[in-house]
Amino acid sequence: MTAEVLATVENGLLKPDAALPFPDQTRVKLTIETVSPESSSLEAWNRLQQIIHQNPIAGIAEKFSRKELHERD
Q1: Is 54 within a domain?
Q2: Cα atoms found within 13 Å of the Cα of residue 14, Cβ hemisphere only
Q3: Are strands 7-10 and 13-16 parallel, antiparallel or unpaired?
Q4: Which entry of 14, 27, 32, 48 is 20 to 30 Å from 54 by CA?
Q5: Number of domains in the chain
Q6: 6 in a domain, yes or no?
Q7: Residue 66 sits in which domain range?
Q8: DSSP assignment, residue 61?
Q9: Has residue 4 been placed in a domain?
Q10: Which residues contact 1 (CB under 8 A, 6 or more apart)?
């Protein structure tokens, strides 16, 4: 099982912002990175653009004919 939770460091100990979804005595592997509130939306946007660039969505819409593209009244 994987969980991503935010925590605060207090006196050298991590204090999770929410309860962890693991039973007591469960060993877990931690990856720690700082969170900066000012840049988190920009980082998320950049990450989203990177994912879209790596996995483009193609072929969903119909292709328009020349007549449809240059529709006249």
Answers
A1: yes
A2: 13
A3: antiparallel
A4: 32
A5: 1
A6: no
A7: 37-73
A8: S
A9: no
A10: 21, 22
